[in-house]
Amino acid sequence: MKFFKKVSVLAVAVLVALSSYAAAAASLTGLRSSSTTARDRIVFDLSEMPLYQARPSDDGRSLTLDFADVDTALFKRIAVRTSRIEAISYERHHGHFYVTVALAKGMDYSIGNLTNPFRIFVDVAPKGALTAQRHASVPRPSVSPADTDTPPAKAELPRMEEKQLAAGLTQREYVYADEDGQVTAYFIEADPARYRVRPALARGVIPGRQTVSGIARDTNAAAAINASYFALSGELIGITKIDGTVVSSTYFDRSAFGVMPDNSFVFGTVSYNGTVKLDQTSLPVSGVNAERGEDNLIIYNRAYGRSTGTNPYGLEYVVRNGRVAQINTNDSLIPSDGYVVSVHGTSMDAFAAAGVRVGDPAVLTEDLGEPWNRAVQVLGAGPRLVENGSVHVTAGEEQFPGDIRYGRAPRTAVGVTQKGNILFAVVDGRQSHSHGLTLTEFADLLVQFGVRDAINLDGGGSSEIYADGDVLNSPSDGSERAVGSALILQKK
Fold first, then answer.
1. What number is the average pLDDT over the span 387-405?
2. Integer distance in angstroms from the first to the last C-alpha of the chain?
3. CA 120 to CA 43: how far, in whole Å?
4. What residue spans define the domains of the chain?
5. Mean pLDDT in the chain?
6. Does the pLDDT of residue 145 top 60, yes or no?
7. d(CA 90, CA 166)
8. What is the model's pTM?
9. Which of 378, 292, 381 is nearest to 341 (CA)?
């Protein structure tokens, strides 16, 4: 896993689930140890929860905690040696602070997080004696019938209910407990030979907002989850490509999920670079299906609806069949077989100075990089959660703020399992039955459920999963939130 310094994110729109601010580095203020007849415990005291990774050695005799961008000015290194812990060593290197715990022979460990105040603890005990679970591991569930109406007592956790919705479509609900309370997660697994996956817009247009269940019903979806980050207006934030057409773009390079023409799946980082050439003058695209700002060049296509809805302070070139068909001042009708180039300020002046006229050739070039140019469906959100079967959270690299990077919250993800199946996942949060997960905890859970690759989608009150004609989870707002888009499964 790569770690990056926390940075502030310039907000380009008002987000429902994402706000920007500069996050200060977490401070490691102390280390404590204690021993009981059952186990030894090491506790790290912190000002906030840092980004960290736990790495066991190949032989299992040591555990290294890799803290990224953590302040150790107040930290006093102490020696710990017990019958279970042979030693603790410390090292700072290239902005990382490494703490290695050497275990005595026959010992095992577990890791947990606590809040109020923030702490990370490591328990060490003889193998098989620990009841807490390893960080990056989830308790193995017991399967019970999905139609039971009796909730389990806490002592009966973990528990998983499984239901076959149709051939190639399985629903699971998984409940487990950690030291901070209960977690409830929901999964839909689909066989790509029987189901296709694609993004779907709220009410079929941008901007628009609609509940996930509403989008699912309108598209006859077998299952759906919330998808893109979005602005209050309903404009999408992030690259979205539906049936080969780019319907939204982004200012950031962010993780994405894609479907290729052969129905294989791709994960990675996607960016948007667009150029419009009218006659002999080329200008960069500022955005797709977004509100036109100062000096912008915005592309409006059929996904935006009937007209551009722009003000009269620009110019608009309506393009059909590779030619400028009309030139208007504002609110142009969007052709179903073309697009509108809407310009303002310096972009408007450049085309006007070039004397662009009706009938001039028009070429729109959009480059997402490979393999995204060839992808039929693309959903950009982020950060990455799982890569090649291992936890790989890229929140720092993708410039997500601290509340997204470190906090526990409701979460949504799309992934592909080791078997090649599509997996929709949602975890409830901010409720008594489920406190939510950090990104790393969510990635751990996905890996335990056999995920090979996965990205995070919009979360918080937007997190929702729908299947079998019903909302499966409990949205944290108390009701369904109207969102900008959903990721849907449709029977082939």
1. 89
2. 37
3. 6
4. 28-126, 190-272+373-491, 273-367
5. 88
6. no
7. 53
8. 0.71
9. 292
- Kindly report the number of other CB atoms within 10 A of residue 209's CB atom: 19
User: pLDDT per residue over 65-112, tens digit each?
Assistant: 988 778 898 899 989 999 999 999 999 887 789 999 999 999 988 887
Strand pairing class (245-248; 338-344) = unpaired
Closest C-alpha to 273, from 283, 281, 282, 285? 285
If you ran DSSP here, which 8-state letter would residue 206 be given? S
Q: Are 187 and 171 in contact (CB under 8 A)?
A: yes
Q: Which amino acid is at 261?
A: P
Q: Concatenated DSSP letters for 36-105?
A: -SS-EEEEEEESSPPEEEEEE-TTSSEEEEEEES-B-TT--------SSEEEEEEEEETTEEEEEEEEPT
* Token pair listed for 437: 């997960």
pLDDT in tens, 309-367: 999 999 999 999 999 999 999 999 999 999 999 999 999 999 999 999 999 999 999 99
Residue 158 burial (10 A CB sphere; 0-12, 13-18, 19+): middle
Cβ contact 101:122 at 8 Å: yes
C-alpha angle 271-277-281 in degrees, rounded to nearest 5: 125
**Alpha-carbon distance 242 to 210, whole Å?**
18
- Are residues 412 and 456 in contact, defined by beta-carbon separation less than 8 angstroms? yes
Q: Are the beta carbons of 144 and 161 closer than 8 angstroms?
A: yes
Q: Tell me how many degrees the CA angle 69-72-78 measures, rounded to the nearest 5.
A: 130
- Give tens-digit pLDDT for 404-437: 777 899 999 999 999 999 999 999 999 999 999 9
What percent of the chain shows pLDDT beyond 70?
Answer: 89
Distance CA 203, CA 266 (A): 27
What was the pLDDT predicted at 59?
84
CATH of domain 28-126: 2.60.40.3500
* Rounded (5°) CA angle 221-226-231: 130
Using alpha carbons, list the distances in angstroms from residue 456 to 67, 189, 404, 414: 22, 16, 10, 7
Q: Are 215 and 224 in contact (CB under 8 A)?
A: yes
* The predicted structure's pLDDT at residue 34: 84
Q: What is the mean pLDDT of residues 199-228?
A: 98
